[in-house]
Design a protein that fits this description.
The protein is about 40% helix and about 5% strand. By secondary structure, the protein is mainly alpha-helical. It has a two-stranded antiparallel sheet with strand order 1-2.
Length: about 110
C-alpha cells in the first residue's frame, strides 16, 4: 500500500493477507505505520500517558468489545423487518438512514 496508512491486514474478512505479506512485513508495518501505535508513542513521548496507562486502557477496550461480542452472539437473531430499526440513537434532528436502508429521514425523539 502506498497511502499514509499501510494495510497490514487483508482486504476483507475472508482475506487474512497472509498469502502476499510475510509475518516480518506485517510486524514492521504495525510497528512503524500503524496510526494507533504512532499515537500511543506520541502520547508517551509527550508524557500525556504512560505505557502502563495505555496498556490498561487497551485492556478496558478489549473487555468492552469482548462483552459486546458475547452479547451479540448470545442474542436472538432479528426478524427481517427489525434489522435496520434503532441503528442510531441520540441523533436529535440529524439525517439518518431509514428502515429500508435506501431512504433517509429526519430523526425525531
Amino acid at each position: 500500500s502506498s497511502g499514509i496508512n499501510a494495510e497490514y491486514g487483508g482486504h476483507s474478512m475472508s482475506d487474512p493477507g497472509t498469502s502476499y505479506r510475510t509475518r516480518d512485513e506485517v510486524q514492521e508495518v504495525r510497528k512503524t505505520k500503524d496510526p494507533i501505535t504512532m499515537v500511543k508513542a506520541m502520547m508517551i513521548e509527550a508524557e500525556l500517558a504512560t505505557e502502563a496507562e495505555l496498556k490498561e486502557l487497551d485492556g478496558e477496550c478489549r473487555k468492552i468489545i469482548d462483552d459486546a461480542t458475547k452479547f451479540a452472539r448470545e442474542s436472538p437473531e432479528l426478524e427481517t423487518h427489525e434489522m435496520f430499526n434503532t441503528i442510531y440513537t441520540d441523533m436529535d434532528g440529524s439525517r439518518i438512514r431509514g428502515s429500508d436502508s435506501m431512504t433517509y429521514g429526519i430523526h425525531s425523539p
